[in-house]
């Protein structure tokens, strides 16, 4: 029977049947080029589109044209159903059919109970089978549809560039007709079916270009259009195609905090630009696409991500208001423009204030190559996963050799461990072969890690405070991990102690996991950028939402856990600064001994001038030397110059005694034998330790240059007495 059926089908093929054609209805009718037939009074050409005009309720009507295309073919067409579809109101576009009445073949159904676009076939008995079940809720706008079928019978359906599905079906291998069939119920649906831009052509065997990451860039962002500086008063995002290939944006997603813009089908030509704005503002720009009714961008900055129609990240920009650089342009009316498309992952250095929507950016220039990504810190996801946090995005393909770079910014790398970590063990990790997003190789990364442990009192201590910053900078607080364990910072807080002794509301140090290893420093500021404009930022300096209030004269800061346990407390005073300074603005206080209590006399000193008067996030310029190993006392150095140049600014007295429990009295005498400074009076000391003299007298005034004698008397409860004295030379300006 099969040969007979095929013979009958071939007999039905019209003489004019063709394997390809196009129809845009620009000629004003459908009687020729190509010729359509069927219920021709039920359709008309209006505004360059085929529109329904059937006035019979509860009916179906059709129009068809000859087409023999069935294999290795691509069908494209636009459909707009200007109503909410239902089981009685939808449209079928027959891609292949055996008869002009469209009684059997493959068709795309637009609409139905779930407002979907799906692929079916209909057999000769009139029964239909769904082959591709498309997404629900997509028929509320004009749709650009595309269907392909390979020579092997593999069908693929696309709606606005988004693949709805793929299936192989070879039930019908021939065709004679192409057409549209409309189903309508009541008069409210009359004349609301539109068809246009129909094209049937052989399927291109060359695979379509698949966009890669950074082929299309977020090129310009207008977050604050008011007050206007001559531009339309509307928020927008500009995209630029830098791939050298035409790219269809259909089904792509532009996502922000308050933006979820699914882009319509649009061919973004090579090296061209398009502006995305809200549906009400898109007409203000050219060329432009609607980003939907909700299109709002935070003035302070936010993460903007562009995804392709398969959900892959193409580009992401986490912009900040600080990128404007201050001044009037940061007050509104100016956009942020990308300067150099060669560096799509660069941040503030690659953006500047402008405003050229749809055109080449005003700030376009070749910038210097950005610094390579550097490791910022480590966090632990669980006993078998470590996450490395970098300052800039990595190349995800290169990173895959070591772990997984996390989307959308790819600036964190999750590494799986072959053996789970055990508590109390410090591990070393070396990672090689990493690249930045521009393909530049990074130096090998070496890092310590371990299972995080809960901080106890004294594990983390205050190590440096800047409470009177220079103009244009902010305060900072620095911590030091003096313990032997990795400490998790997430769950720790800063607080200010008020005069009655209570704590004001605490502020969290970090919002996400953050590991601080033994011997590491970290500083926090409300504006890290401003701090780094005034000081060398050679270590870890993190932004914090708010620091405790730190008055310039005196105050108290507290470090505590979420359960209220206080880890360290420091009551600072401006008078703790070195006496050589008449103005201490812009000079931090640094802790000399990490193992001594914060309030212990002489444990804080002004940061050295040679270090720039502050060392945020790294080793203090002032730190006491290690205690002597031999039993007895030792003076270091024998000559000192308390001029705050960072070199021999203090004289240290070290001791190493056979046992703890000695009570100390340490006195400084001038050359005339007069006591001028009491460094320690009845102080209970450990078996080893140090104390320093900064060259100030008992009244706080600086001592004159000359020879001084330091006398130590130590005794314990068993009657043992230790006495020691040594001369020290105090010099100023080399004298």
Automatic annotation (TrEMBL):
Residues 201-321 form the LTD domain. The keyword Signal applies. Keywords: Signal. InterPro entries: Lamin_tail_dom, Lamin_tail_dom_sf. The keyword Signal applies. SUPFAM superfamilies: Lamin A/C globular tail domain. Residues 1-19 form the signal peptide. This is Lamin tail domain-containing protein. It comes from the Bacteria.
